[in-house]
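We treat protein structure as text, and this decision shapes the records that our systems exchange. Below, we set out a record of this kind in full and without editing:

***
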Amino acid sequence: MASRQDWLEAGLRVLSEEGAPALTIERLCGRLGLTKGSFYHHFKGMAGFRTGLLEHFAAEYTTRYIDEVERSGGSTLARLDRLLSLVLAEDDDRSRVEISVRAWAAQDGEVRATQERVDALRLDYLRSLWRETGGAEADAVPMARLLYLVLIGAGQMAPPMTAGDLREVYHLAMRLTPGARS
């Protein structure tokens, strides 16, 4: 029997490969080779699955990164670099999921609300890291936006930027950080 986590991971794969309209119980069951009974063991219908999927997206693609970076400790610049490494390690999958969730958010209020919470949390974290560097308070919001928009924009390019290209852009931006190595 598949776990709740297995169903949610399958949901993110279906979403990123086929789009939100493909998120059906039948498609998910086919993907996992299981029956609807197994699905209903974990979720109270598709609405419950969607809510769980959005929570899973936020946890896996935001809180997990923040928690891991904070556990790793180190200087603020080391944590920023660790965050970049974590995000780039999953670049292809992360980018496809991000694009798919954002496209879905343009059509669905529940998804849009989740995306807004995720964006706010990510920006708040980047803003807090900037403040820890000793950067000017007036630059905290614009710098957080710059770092975040580079990541989101890189996934929208055709073809998407490589992890190496994205790292190069981030290192350029990091030179604006107080105490950064030249």
User: Anything to note?
Assistant: The chain has a mean pLDDT of 92. Residues 52-174 form a domain with the Tetracycline Repressor; domain 2 fold (CATH 1.10.357). The first helix runs from residue 4 to 18. The CA atoms of residues 19 and 103 lie 8 Å apart.
